[in-house]
Design a protein that fits this description.
This protein is 24% helix and 35% strand. It has 261 residues and is of the alpha+beta class. The protein folds into 2 domains: 4-91, Winged helix-like DNA-binding domain superfamily/Winged helix DNA-binding domain (Arc Repressor Mutant, subunit A, Orthogonal Bundle); 96-254, 3-Layer(aba) Sandwich (Chorismate lyase), CATH 3.40.1410. The strands form 4 sheets. The protein has a 6-stranded antiparallel beta sheet with strand order 6-7-8-11-10-9. A two-stranded antiparallel sheet has the order 1-2. Helix 2 crosses helix 3 (65-77). The protein starts with a strand and ends in a 7-residue tail after the last strand.
């Protein structure tokens, strides 16, 4: 059986970067995705580097744009490519592994993974706590809380929507803080002098609705991690209750279990 190969070489070194084999068993788009994924995992392509456009790769491989576009979409959904309209793709870091054994804020966790975190404040309001929120924060029903909704980014890609509730009595004028430029945990510990101790999480799975999907730049009905968390300070005071929707195609959960004697 004759096997046709399409080869793409690195423009800087001249070494083979990607080779497609026309065997009929593995489609071109899957071969491209597999190879690019491997190059990123092997650190031969590094996070933050500019990558080839769809057109450039298609021309160099001598194939149509369609399989390249399909591969890029797959790699983008997995976090291996960051794609913005009008610009060449940028190499991403792949799915983010979240370690639930340590209490980290989003910004701390992203930086520990070599990613650049950023935040967009979607909504900030002062309201009365409903019975469920009051119970989780260990306060009286009707007591005022700040409700803050934020969109979280990793390397410019939207990855999570976080809605937080904080007792206004503990955090006066919270709405005047720089909630986009500063980590919430940084503000809590440095401006309000409350040292964080632990978080209690309930992790589940859900599907994203139309509005949230549009905000997260994903497809309605896709899977998300649904996390409810209550955070306590060293005085065992509940200081924040949050509801997070994290794109399941961008996050994995890391939990280490130990068997007790």
């Amino acid at each position: 059986m004759n096997v046709t190969t399409n080869e793409m070489r690195d423009q800087a070194t001249g070494e083979p970067l990607l080779v497609l084999t026309d065997t009929g068993f593995v489609p071109y788009y899957e071969q491209i995705a597999q190879r690019v994924r491997s190059l990123i995992v092997e650190k031969k392509l590094k996070s933050g580097e500019s990558f080839y456009s769809e057109g450039q790769m298609a021309r160099m491989l001598g194939i149509s744009k369609m399989p390249v576009r399909h591969a890029f979409q797959k790699l983008r959904s997995e976090g291996f490519l960051v794609i913005k309209r009008g610009k060449n793709p940028v190499i991403g870091a792949g799915p983010v592994q979240w370690n639930f054994r340590e209490l980290h804020g989003f910004s701390e966790e992203m930086r520990s993974r070599g990613l650049v975190p950023s935040t967009k404040l979607l909504d900030m309001r002062l309201q009365n706590a409903d019975p469920e929120t009051a119970k989780l924060l260990h306060i009286a029903t009707g007591q005022q809380v700040y409700r803050m909704k934020r969109l979280r980014f990793a390397n410019g890609e939207p990855v999570a929507i976080v809605t937080s509730y904080l007792p206004a009595q503990l955090f006066p004028d919270l709405d005047k803080q720089d909630l986009e430029g500063q980590s919430l945990y940084f503000i809590i510990e440095h401006f309000y002098k409350r040292r964080l101790l632990r978080g209690e999480e309930v992790i589940g799975a859900a599907t994203v609705g139309r509005e949230e999907a549009q905000t997260l730049q994903t497809v309605a009905g896709n899977a998300v991690l649904h996390i409810n968390e209550t955070t306590f300070d060293i005085e065992q005071t509940a200081i924040e209750f949050s509801i997070s929707l994290l794109r399941a195609d961008r996050y994995t959960v890391s939990v280490v279990s130990e068997r007790r004697k």
